[in-house]
Write a structure and sequence with these properties.
five-stranded antiparallel beta sheet, mainly beta, 9 strands
Length: about 130
């Protein structure tokens, strides 16, 4: 397996055709890059789509948040999950919340929810659109 991205560009939503190289990348490298960008950003966050796009059914986004920043309560994008690549976050929906640390995983509730960074953090958000 080669390092870096091979085949079709990540984020275009296409699956490589039979016989074509697979897309591959280092989530660790993307996480480090996005966290550096978030630390320099006035908003304290940065994001990069690593799979899919507006028309794709499967979308995966690496999202970095600096400590104390949050994604305010928002509607659920459809069936989705959250995997913490580094740091510690709190996922809240209604009266419930869960804290997740590096390696933690949670299905995102289908109701309004928010995400807060308890320390500098990077997560992989996976969404199945239209679900």
């Amino acid at each position: 397996m080669t390092s870096g991205i091979a085949g079709s560009p990540a984020g275009d939503g296409r699956v490589p055709a039979k016989g074509q190289p697979m897309d591959a990348l280092s989530l660790t490298a993307v996480a480090d890059e996005q966290l550096a960008l978030a630390r320099r950003s006035g908003s304290g966050r940065a994001a990069h789509s690593v799979r899919g796009g507006q028309r794709a059914a499967l979308r995966q986004t690496v999202l970095a948040l600096v400590a104390g920043r949050e994604l305010a309560e928002h509607e659920s994008p459809g069936e989705a999950s959250l995997h913490v690549l580094c740091g510690r976050v709190r996922l809240s929906a209604g009266t419930e919340s869960v804290e997740l640390a590096e390696g933690g995983y949670a299905a995102i509730p289908s109701e309004r929810h928010s995400l807060a960074a308890l320390e500098d953090s990077v997560v992989l958000l996976t969404v199945v659109a239209g679900s």
